[in-house]
């Protein structure tokens, strides 16, 4: 299986998307996002998306030339219109604004409408944690899950992501979950490789368990946590679509097919400046320090909520056998930077052909 350096992968995606009718600026945003997905081991949101993205740019389902716009309805609220283009330029606009607005006001929210597949939500919230902010992201996706007890898909697999900063040099806490048992991109990737999927991931259109990726994509995903998963999916639909004015999952067209209208889904990002809180009073700090000393431990707390985040993160890391969410990402990125990424040869051949005839 061929290796690509991160720079080579970025160039491959950018040049392909430009060849397929996407503006250079938008192609760069798409390339950054897909390569970032590969860096953290999420290949289903990485280069495997290029063929479907290209097909949708060609068909006009996604406007590769769109430039997102924004409207600030309140001091702490921004609405970004992706204008039926790729989500990534709109996400970049939202993140840049949040990185300025949240420290100034303590908290800020950005809602994105007329959007598309937003990739690995954990990558987006990590960008905000890297500038010292606590971040949450909710994204709805085309319908793939039925309400618990039902058969008709109404909700997307609807990722929720959270990130919290730690002291300089330590990777942030990053939590990124899809509300189906597995991300739908994993099923798409299995289909591209000609592989079956494990039973328990999805049901076919008749509501029966399936190991066929195509039947799974035409059917429904099984929710994480059964009824709890669909309850959370409903919450995300209301936050990422109902609140901001985007399409609900059952109104959105597929992220994979070039046919039909633009998906028009939504995303909601929240950013909180930990320094905006008063923190712990001196007596409480002294109490914790005394308790730590009594246990023979060094109390790590200095001041403010940011160091309290690190206190709990340290406790998780010190627990034998436990892994702090986000810690593995740093190691994966280091390896990707040193060794590059593995890309399926058949996928590389397919990407290489995209847009060649149209540009000839």
| Number of helices in the DSSP assignment | 13
Strand order of the largest sheet: 2-3-4-10-5-6-7
CATH architecture of the largest domain: 2-Layer Sandwich
Q: What is the SS-derived class? A: alpha+beta
Q: Report strand %.
A: 5-15%
At the fold tier of CATH, the topology name of the largest domain is: Ribosomal Protein S8, Chain: A, domain 1
Number of domains as seen in the coordinates: 3
Distance between the termini: 29 Å
Entry keywords:
360 residues, alpha+beta, Hypothetical Oxidoreductase Yiak, Chain: A, domain 1, Ribosomal Protein S8, Chain: A, domain 1, 3 domains, 7-stranded mixed sheet, two-stranded antiparallel ribbon, 13 helices, 11 strands
């Amino acid at each position: 299986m061929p290796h690509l350096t991160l720079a080579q992968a970025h160039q491959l995606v950018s040049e392909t998307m430009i060849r397929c009718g996407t503006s250079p600026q938008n192609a760069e945003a798409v390339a950054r996002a897909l390569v970032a997905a590969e860096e953290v081991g999420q290949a289903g949101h990485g280069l495997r998306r290029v063929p479907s993205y290209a097909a949708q740019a060609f068909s006009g389902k996604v406007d590769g030339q769109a430039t997102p716009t924004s409207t600030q309805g309140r001091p702490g609220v921004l609405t970004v219109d992706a204008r039926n283009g790729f989500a990534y330029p709109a996400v970049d606009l939202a993140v840049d604004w949040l990185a300025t607005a949240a420290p100034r006001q303590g908290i800020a929210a950005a809602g994105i409408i007329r959007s598309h597949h937003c990739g690995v939500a954990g990558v987006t919230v990590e960008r905000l944690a890297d500038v010292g902010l606590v971040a949450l992201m909710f994204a709805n996706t085309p319908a793939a899950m039925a309400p618990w007890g039902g058969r008709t898909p109404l909700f997307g697999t609807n990722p929720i992501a959270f990130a919290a900063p730690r002291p300089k040099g330590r990777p942030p806490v990053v939590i990124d979950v899809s509300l189906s048992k597995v991300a739908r991109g994993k099923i798409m990737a299995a289909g591209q490789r000609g592989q079956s999927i494990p039973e328990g991931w999805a049901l076919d259109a008749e509501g029966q368990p399936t190991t066929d990726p195509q039947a799974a994509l035409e059917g429904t995903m099984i929710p994480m946590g059964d009824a709890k998963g669909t309850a959370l999916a409903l919450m995300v639909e209301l936050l990422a679509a109902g609140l901001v004015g985007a399409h609900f999952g059952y109104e959105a067209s597929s992220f994979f097919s070039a046919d039909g209208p633009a998906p028009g889904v939504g995303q909601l990002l929240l950013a909180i400046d930990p320094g905006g809180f008063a923190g712990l009073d001196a007596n409480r700090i002294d109490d914790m320090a005394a308790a730590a000393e009594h246990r023979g431990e060094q109390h790590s707390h200095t001041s403010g909520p940011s160091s309290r985040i690190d206190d709990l993160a340290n406790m998780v890391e010190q627990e034998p056998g436990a892994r702090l969410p986000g810690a593995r990402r740093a190691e994966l990125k280091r390896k990707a930077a040193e060794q590059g990424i593995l890309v399926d040869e058949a996928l590389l051949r397919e990407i290489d052909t995209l847009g060649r005839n149209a540009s000839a």
